[in-house]
């Protein structure tokens, strides 16, 4: 017999996943030297996320030490790396290339994952008037290539947009997350 195709309501979850293996979770901490490591371990966490603020000329080794500290404590490490909206506005593609090179250097230290920027749909994280998924996609492509060239085993995670619907109230300063994501996908980001 021939089975009928399943009809799925728009937005409903479907079978399948891009995730393989066992589900893992962790906590966002300010340092790999956190006093909460034992509590995290008792809760079943095996990941630490630490945010690193990049500035031009920064040595990747300064953040690279976090990898050995986290691994030494028995945790996988996700480094969320962000920069300065003012530096990005002033430096454009040149700044993006420096940022990507820094991430490539950081990947050489063997973190388990690197998140490229954070909330790039808000002006507190991305230059006012330049917020778009397409513009962020340029950075992600450079970062992805630099990270994978240095260490193909590092997972690359795109910066998550802030959930918001306030772009009409703050034009040029905020882009709705759904609009930002549409621009990101339209720019071909799924290949990175």
Structure explained in plain terms:
The protein is of the alpha/beta class and 192 residues long. 36% of the residues lie in helices and 13% in strands. The chain has helices spanning 37-42, 60-72, 85-107, 133-150, 177-186; strands spanning 26-28, 47-53, 76-82, 113-116, 155-158. It has a five-stranded parallel β-sheet, with helices on one face. Strand 4 (113-116), helix 4 (133-150) and strand 5 form a beta-alpha-beta unit. It is globular.
Task: For the structure shown, list the relevant keywords.
192 residues; alpha/beta; 5-stranded parallel beta sheet; 5 strands; disordered N terminus
Runs in which pLDDT lies below 50 for 5 or more consecutive residues are 1-18
Biggest pleated-sheet summary: 5 strands, parallel
Distance between the termini: 41 Å
Question: Could you give the order of the helices and strands?
Answer: EHEHEHEHEH
Class from helix and strand fractions: alpha/beta
How much of the sequence lies in strands comes to 5-15%
State the strand order across the main sheet: 1-2-3-4-5
Q: Characterize the quaternary organization of these chains.
A: single chain
- Gross morphology is globular
Q: Please work out how many helical segments DSSP would assign.
A: 5
- Tell me the radius of gyration: 19 Å
């Amino acid at each position: 017999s021939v089975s009928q195709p399943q009809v799925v309501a728009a937005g409903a979850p479907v079978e399948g996943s891009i995730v393989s293996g066992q589900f893992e979770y962790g906590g966002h901490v300010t340092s790999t030297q956190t006093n909460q490591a034992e509590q995290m371990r008792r809760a079943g966490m095996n990941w630490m996320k630490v945010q690193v603020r990049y500035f031009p000329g920064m040595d990747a080794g300064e953040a690279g030490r976090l990898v050995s500290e986290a691994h030494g404590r028995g945790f996988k490490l996700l480094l969320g790396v962000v920069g300065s909206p003012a530096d990005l506005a002033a430096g454009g593609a040149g700044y993006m290339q420096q940022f990507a090179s820094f991430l490539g250097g950081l990947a050489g230290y063997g973190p388990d994952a690197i998140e490229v920027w954070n909330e790039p749909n808000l002006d507190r994280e991305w230059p006012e008037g330049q917020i778009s998924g397409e513009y962020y996609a340029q950075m992600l492509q450079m970062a992805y290539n630099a990270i994978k060239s240095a260490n193909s085993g590092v997972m690359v995670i795109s910066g998550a947009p802030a959930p918001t619907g306030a772009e009409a109230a703050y034009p040029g300063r905020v882009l709705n997350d759904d609009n930002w994501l549409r621009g990101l996908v339209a720019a071909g980001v799924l290949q990175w």
